[in-house]
């Protein structure tokens, strides 16, 4: 049985590059609580509590930016781990095939 994705979040390394832009973008896209300040621990916490089908999509052409050291790489790791642990989260790579 396939799941209906209720929320689609496109991940751009430029948006995740600093704490402030990441917090603003994810607050808007995920309707996060006001207390979410954008640090990676808080991101892991809020992702663990998501209960509606949510898909994160990474464009394959942006992968090199995610693999470089820095905040985008760390954020993608947090999101990937959360998608493994929370059955309502999904991580897709667009443009593979």
List its traits.
single chain; 97 residues; alpha/beta; Barnase, Chain D; 3-stranded parallel β-sheet; 3 strands; 43% helix
CATH architecture: 2-Layer Sandwich
Reading off the top of the CATH hierarchy, the class is best stated as Alpha Beta
Low-confidence stretches: none
Tally of discrete structural domains? 1
Could you give the count of β-strands? Answer: 3
List the helices and strands in order.
Answer: EHHEHHE
Shape: globular
Helix content percent band = 40-55%
Please name the fourth-level CATH homologous superfamily. Barstar-like
Quickly count the helices: 4
Gap between N and C termini: 23 Å
**Biggest β-sheet strands, sense, barrel:** 3 strands, parallel
CATH third-level topology: Barnase, Chain D
Mean pLDDT: 91
| Side-by-side strand order of the widest sheet | 1-2-3
Protein structure class? alpha/beta
Radius of gyration: 13 Å
Question: What portion of residues belong to β-strands?
Answer: 15-25%
Give your account of this protein's structure.
With 97 residues, this protein is of the alpha/beta class. The chain has one domain (7-94): Barstar-like (Barnase, Chain D, 2-Layer Sandwich), CATH 3.30.370.10. 43% of the residues lie in helices and 18% in strands. The protein has helices at residues 19-30, 40-49, 63-67, 71-85; strands at 7-11, 54-59, 89-94. Helix 2 (40-49) runs parallel beside helix 4. The longest helix has 15 residues, at 71-85. It is globular. The mean pLDDT is 91.
